Task: inverse folding
């Protein structure tokens, strides 16, 4: 197997602020909390950080989606950088991670601070924070395609794709419910999760329809919080306080039309994920059978269902049978997913909450929710994914 550059990088430290539905400090304060925690967790000092990356950068919008830019955080922490990058036009949220891998491989940085901050819960108290476009304002870019159909929010947009999937797969609501039920069951064991009360199929079926077939419990939880990771050169991480945990393979391809509205064929129902997964598997000798824990994007339950199929965990259109009853995806099941509750229960940390949780699991720090694999003290291989379409991305994280 080719020695791809990601294999020479490792997550050396993690940090996460308090995650809530209403922060008691500003977004910058949350970001500083997460960043300092990650630096300390890696056994480093601020002067060791010579690179920064985030997605999508600080947008300056009032919706809380991306409130903190790299220049703001760099100045707050007084970091001296050799390299930094933020951009929204990447392979989803993990584009920041993929860019950092390249920087480390090129010798531009040794320790890169990567962060994702959300402040949507507070923003929603004063604005249309979840709208793709604001009422009364002009509609630009791709949203011109949605406006005639009154598609002003992500749930309405994604429901169109979910409908295509339901039509092709024949999945039933009671089967879809297992994603939300599993997440809440795991969140009950996570003191940091926002929603911890278990739910049943009846609860799921009684929850309001947001956009057919999406119900309330199919949707993630907008929150205030920040997650940070330190990506280091493998040589620089091997003597750190945490087990050596390296990036084994990435999937960052966009071999489809780069558009939410112009997907072709089955890409509408598969969310442009198959080529991303294929790229990842082509960069490693590992297979899906080696995965011990999966932190799969669950902005909507549909994304998680998609990934189960597109990673090869089950056959195309076969997730309905795999998740039936919820046993296989539970903490003690054959393929445990979203062990901290996922975005739908723990809070929408936009795929970086999953990275934080994967490290928790691989380092054996999960407490009551710790996954235990037969023949292993702790899980050794984790997979993480982002949503789909132009934002699809995935990677494997391994430890000795």
Result:
């Amino acid at each position: 197997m080719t020695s791809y550059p990601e294999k020479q990088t490792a997550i050396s430290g993690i940090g996460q602020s308090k995650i809530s539905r209403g922060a008691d400090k500003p977004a910058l304060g949350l970001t500083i909390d997460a960043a300092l925690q990650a630096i300390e967790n890696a056994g480093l000092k601020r002067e060791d950080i010579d690179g920064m990356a985030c997605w999508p950068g600080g947008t300056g919008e009032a919706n809380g989606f991306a409130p903190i830019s790299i220049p703001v955080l760099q100045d707050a922490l007084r970091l001296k950088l050799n390299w930094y990058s933020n951009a929204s036009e990447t392979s989803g949220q993990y584009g920041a991670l993929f860019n950092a891998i390249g920087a480390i491989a090129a010798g531009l940085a040794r320790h890169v601070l990567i962060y994702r901050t959300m402040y949507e819960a507070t923003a929603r108290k004063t604005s249309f924070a979840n709208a793709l476009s604001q009422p009364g304002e002009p509609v630009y870019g791709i949203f011109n395609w949605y406006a005639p159909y009154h598609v002003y929010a992500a749930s309405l947009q994604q429901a169109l794709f979910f409908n295509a999937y339901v039509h092709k797969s024949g999945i039933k609501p009671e089967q879809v419910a297992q994603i939300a039920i599993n997440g809440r069951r795991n969140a009950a064991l996570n003191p940091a999760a926002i929603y911890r009360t278990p739910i049943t199929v009846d609860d799921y079926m009684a929850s309001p329809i947001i956009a057919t077939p999406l119900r309330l419990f199919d949707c993630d939880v907008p929150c205030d919080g920040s997650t940070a990771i330190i990506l280091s050169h493998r040589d620089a991480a091997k003597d750190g306080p945490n087990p050596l945990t390296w990036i084994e393979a990435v999937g960052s391809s966009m071999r489809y039309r780069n558009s939410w509205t112009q997907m072709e064929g089955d890409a509408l129902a598969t969310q442009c994920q198959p080529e991303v997964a294929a790229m990842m598997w082509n960069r490693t000798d590992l297979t899906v059978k080696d995965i011990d824990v999966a932190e799969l994007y669950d902005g909507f339950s549909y994304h998680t269902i998609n990934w189960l199929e597109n990673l090869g965990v089950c056959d195309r259109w076969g997730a309905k049978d795999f998740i039936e009853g919820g046993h296989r995806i539970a903490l003690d099941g054959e393929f445990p997913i979203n062990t901290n509750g996922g975005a739908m229960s723990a809070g929408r940390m936009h795929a970086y909450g999953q990275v934080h949780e994967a490290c928790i699991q691989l380092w054996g720090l999960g407490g009551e929710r710790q996954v235990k694999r037969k023949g292993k003290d702790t899980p050794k291989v984790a997979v993480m994914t982002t949503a789909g379409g132009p934002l699809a991305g995935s990677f494997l994280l391994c430890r000795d």
Observations:
- Residues 154-169 form the longest helix (16 residues).
- The mean pLDDT is 93.
- The radius of gyration is 20 Å.
- The longest strand covers residues 224-233.
